[in-house]
Design goal:
The complex is a heterodimer. By secondary structure, chain A is an alpha/beta fold. Chain A is 29% helix and 21% strand. Chain B is mainly β. Chain B is elongated. Classes of the chains: A alpha/beta, B mainly beta.
């Protein structure tokens, strides 16, 4: 890298090796479990009024899955303030995300203290949850080997060597069936007994998703450099070797989200990385390779959360000296992506007495993926700029439809006031927003299996 | 009988063995032991340190407990410890002999105790092997002279975020191996030369986020090996010449968030400096004198100041520069040669200023640029050829400018069409004028729509036009007062109602504003 500094070449790859090896790099290091915990608590001590640490559960070996929360009111969901999460180190040996999220936490705290307007605004308007390591046991296995000797698979899984990104309930098959039969398009039911079929780390994360109404998320991995968006699982698993693009109803939006990260990243958008090429640095999961039971698809199919998977580095466990470059390359992207949670529309759903209605459905005509309101009656629907017809509905109320134009800037607020339905129409189907001309059949509702 | 005896003997043996192995692997109550050498206790119900810890334990970490006192005997049974961490507990007092037996200790942290106001003299007297001592986020008001005298091997000392307002002279006199000293987030009003005495190997000094309002020219004369100096978040209003001139190895200097009104490279003395990173963000800089002695500087952050303009020689000789951030100032224009010879620039941030024009040759030497941010300025147009020399793939931000989508935009428009992938937030690059294109994205506008409705000043007075017809040729002669591109649209309406349109552009570059006749036949 020293040579690249002296002899600038047109090759950007070479140049990037020399990028700011010094910039605030002195505190970037690998963190073993206890060092990570110390680092997180240090951030909490440094910014006590805007942070909170909580554990969502324990790993197989008993390590806490600590989350650091940033908010102007830590520990409290404020209506109309969206919840965001970053998850790192799901594969124990993919460590760049873990270190970036520790550094990102320090960065948010320091910039807030320094009065950085952009960061201050972000923390005031967003509730940010950071889980730097979802697989602390796997990390220890990988870290014991160290960066030099880390094989491709050592420490990927948890202490029982289960790959956590193949461990979530598979909801895609049901989704693809519902697509054909015009069934439910969101919050698909979990299989019976699911708690006993997943690992403790997975269980902790699913419970976490149940307790917080996350809107946007990213899951940080390593081994390639690309922003990967759902679906991960191919619609037609029979075509082996050749996988096909599995678009979600929110495909355009997901592409935009992925592009936001890849372009704000110093080199992801260039496409050529690690000997692979991804146009614009983004890819649909299934068109890369089909993957079942992943966390990304689960977010979209079981919650209101839109998650993408970020592959950040060719080397899954790079030497410490590589971390400053990774940080500088990702810093702006981590902030820009987070800011995306403030686009689209958001608002409240009230009844006639101005009481908020929880779990009301928000449907956007033309996009067959509804979202629901949280317990406070607030909803968030990420959308690209454009004009939309939006319907709010809830059992026992008459649905209400509005038209709204979304611009490129802040989320538009659109509130709904639902009238109680007359007795006879109480049976009305809850998916009134999904009237589909091509399939006028009433939605097929299957009970939870 | 014999059988019974034998059986009980075997049982006894089993029990005995079972008991012993249990002793070896027993983990203290309310603690976790992921390996035999480490004990981690994180339970707020724990109010005293656990007893009978295995002698194998080297690492002992106690966090978020309610342990309030460390007594002289608290740790006497674990003299083998090499790392001891107390984090976010409720310690009120640490006995002077608490660590007396811990002679093997290499790392000690006592952080996050909001009621810990002082440490007794002699607390660390047997820690001659200690290399890392962290005393952050407590409530230490000061430190007694001599507290650190025995720490001859110490390499890292942090006392971040206490309420220290002053430190005794010669406090660090024996810390001849110290590399990192962190005194940030305290209430220090000054850094005295005598306080830094003995720190001949110090590389990183953090005194950021204190109340320091001035520095003397000899403040740092005892720490001449410094490579990083953090002074951000203080109250410095000015820096005297030669303040940092003793720091020949200084690579990183952070002055962010002070009250500086001006900055000059004279603070580094007269010789060229080796400085690589200089952060001046969030000061009150109105002017910036030439930085030409900073010939090694790669990163320069000048954002969030009050710079109105820059002189042409500001960055002369600063040719190693790779990242330059001038965002969030009040710059209205930039001298044509401002970035001249800065061939290594990779990131140039000019967003959030008041730039209304950019010279066509401004970026002539930035062929290696990878990131150019021009967003949130007052730019209506960009000159043709501005980006033509960029050789590497780059990303650009152009949004938040009042783009005028007329014939002057052809260059930018073509470039946006061609390189749209390189522009971030393309959906926010909007036309501000003319009215009929307002709020449209530049990328969505058809090139043919980029027309110049000649302004009153430039438009030929149609009353002064003469119309001549001879045979099948119509000649319109107008007199233009100004030299601007003129587009003439001729519409022929056939008898069947079809319309054909001919557009004629007169580019002043070629016409040189001669009284050229433009002819067009159907």
């Amino acid at each position: 890298s020293g040579q690249a500094r002296v002899l600038p070449r047109l090759s950007s790859a070479l140049l990037l090796w020399a990028t700011g090896l010094l910039v605030s790099g002195s505190d970037l290091q690998h963190h073993r479990y206890e060092d990570m915990v110390r680092a997180l608590f240090a951030v909490q001590s440094e910014c006590p009024y805007i942070t909170r640490i909580y554990s969502i559960g324990r790993s197989v070996e008993g390590r806490h899955l600590y989350v650091l929360e940033f908010s102007d009111n830590p520990g409290i969901h404020e209506a109309l303030e969206p919840e965001f999460k970053y998850v790192g180190n799901m594969h124990g040996n993919e460590v760049v995300g873990r270190e970036l999220l520790i550094k990102f936490s320090q960065f948010l705290c320091e910039e807030y203290r320094a009065g950085n307007q952009r960061i201050t605004r972000l923390i005031h308007d967003t509730r940010i949850h950071i889980l730097p390591s979802m697989n602390p046991d796997g990390y220890e296995v990988a870290a014991r080997q160290g960066p030099e000797f880390n094989g491709y698979l050592v420490g990927r899984g948890n202490a029982r060597e289960i790959d956590l990104n193949r461990n979530f309930p598979d909801l895609n098959a049901l989704m693809y069936y519902y697509e054909k039969t015009n069934g439910r398009n969101h919050h698909l039911p979990l299989p019976d007994n699911w708690e006993h079929q997943v690992e403790p780390e997975t269980l902790a994360v699913i419970k976490w998703m149940q307790n917080y109404n996350f809107i946007l998320s990213a899951n940080l991995h390593g081994g390639a450099v690309v922003a990967n968006y759902p679906f991960d699982k191919s619609r037609d698993p029979r075509i082996r070797g050749r996988t096909t693009y599995a678009a979600t109803p929110d495909d355009k939006l997901f592409r935009k989200l992925a592009r936001t990260y890849s372009y704000a990243h110093s080199w992801m958008h260039k496409g050529w990385n690690c000997g692979d090429f991804f146009d614009e640095g983004i890819t649909n999961g299934a068109s890369w390779y089909s993957l079942s039971k992943g966390m990304q698809d689960f977010n979209y199919l079981y919650t209101n959360c839109f998650e993408i998977t970020l592959e950040l580095s060719c080397d899954k466990f790079p030497p410490e000296s590589e971390l400053p470059r990774e940080w500088l390359g990702n810093r702006e992207a981590l902030v820009s992506y987070l800011e995306q949670v403030h686009h689209g529309i958001k608002g409240m759903v009230y009844d006639e007495n101005n009481n908020p209605i929880g779990n009301a459905e928000i449907s956007v005509a033309g996009i067959h993926h509804d979202v629901t309101t949280g317990v406070d009656g607030d909803y968030f629907r990420l959308l690209l700029p454009g004009t939309y017809t939006v319907t709010a509905s809830a059992p026992g109320y008459l649905p209400f439809t509005s038209t709204v134009t979304v611009g490129p800037a802040e989320a538009i607020q659109l509130h709904f006031y639902l009238k109680t339905a007359p007795k006879q129409s109480l049976k009305a189907k809850p998916h009134s927003g999904r009237k589909n001309l091509s399939s006028p059949k009433a939605p097929l509702k299957l009970g939870p299996r | 009988m014999e059988k019974g005896l034998r059986l009980s003997l075997v049982l006894g043996l089993l029990l005995c063995q079972g008991g012993r192995s249990e002793l070896q692997t027993v983990c203290p109550y309310r603690c976790q032991c992921f390996t035999a050498s480490q004990v981690l206790c994180a339970d707020e119900r724990m109010s005293a340190l656990p007893g009978n810890m295995s002698r194998q334990v080297k690492d002992f970490i106690v966090m978020t407990s309610s342990v309030a006192y460390l007594f002289s005997h608290s740790l006497e049974e674990s003299p083998q410890l090499t790392r001891l961490v107390f984090l976010n507990n409720a310690l009120r007092s640490v006995h002077a002999q608490a660590f007396e037996h811990l002679t093997e200790l290499r790392e000690l942290e006592i952080s996050g105790n909001p009621w810990l106001e002082s440490l007794f003299l002699g607390t660390f007297s047997n820690q001659g092997n200690l290399t890392v001592l962290l005393l952050n986020f407590n409530r230490l008001k000061t430190v007694l002279p001599g507290l650190f005298d025995s720490l001859k091997q110490l390499e890292v000392l942090q006392m971040k975020s206490n309420i220290i307002s002053s430190l005794p002279p010669l406090l660090f006199l024996n810390l001849n191996n110290l590399r990192v000293l962190d005194l940030s987030q305290n209430k220090l009003e000054e850094v005295k030369r005598e306080t830094l005495c003995g720190l001949a190997k110090l590389e990183i000094l953090k005194v950021n986020n204190n109340l320091i309002s001035s520095l003397q020219s000899d403040t740092f004369s005892n720490v001449s090996q410094l490579t990083e100096l953090h002074l951000e978040g203080n109250r410095l209003t000015q820096l005297a010449d030669d303040t940092f001139s003793e720091l020949k190895n200084l690579q990183v200097l952070n002055l962010r968030g002070n009250l500086l009104r001006s900055f000059s490279d004279k603070v580094f003395g007269s010789e060229p400096s080796d400085l690589k990173e200089l952060n001046l963000k969030g000061n009150r800089l109105i002017e910036l004198s030439s930085l030409s002695s900073l010939t090694s500087l790669t990163d320069l952050i000048l954002s969030s100041n009050r710079l109105l303009n820059l002189t042409e020689d500001t960055f002369r000789n600063v040719t190693a520069l790779e990242n330059l951030d001038l965002s969030e100032n009040q710059l209205t224009s930039l001298p044509t040669n401002l970035f001249r010879d800065l061939f290594r620039i990779k990131a140039l941030h000019l967003h959030s200023n008041n730039l209304s024009t950019v010279d066509a040759k401004l970026f002539e030497d930035q062929m290696l640029i990878q990131q150019l941010y021009l967003s949130n300025n007052q730019l209506e147009t960009l000159p043709a050829g501005l980006f033509d020399l960029f050789a590497t793939q780059h990303t650009m931000r152009l949004h938040g400018n009042p783009w005028r989508c007329d014939c002057h935009m052809w260059y930018l428009h073509d470039w946006v069409q061609r390189s749209g992938q390189d522009i971030e937030m393309l959906d926010r690059v909007l036309c501000e004028s003319p009215l009929f294109l307002r709020r449209r994205t530049v990328v969505s506008v058809d090139r043919d729509q980029l027309v110049c409705h000649l302004s009153k000043a430039g438009v030929p007075d149609l009353n002064a036009c003469s119309l001549q017809a001879s045979n099948d040729t119509v000649t319109v002669r107008c007199k233009a007062h100004r030299c601007s591109p003129v587009t003439v649209k001729v519409q022929f309406v056939e008898e069947d109602g079809t319309t054909t349109e001919h557009i004629l552009k007169n580019d002043p570059k070629y016409s040189q504003c001669s009284n050229k006749e433009v002819l067009e036949s159907p």
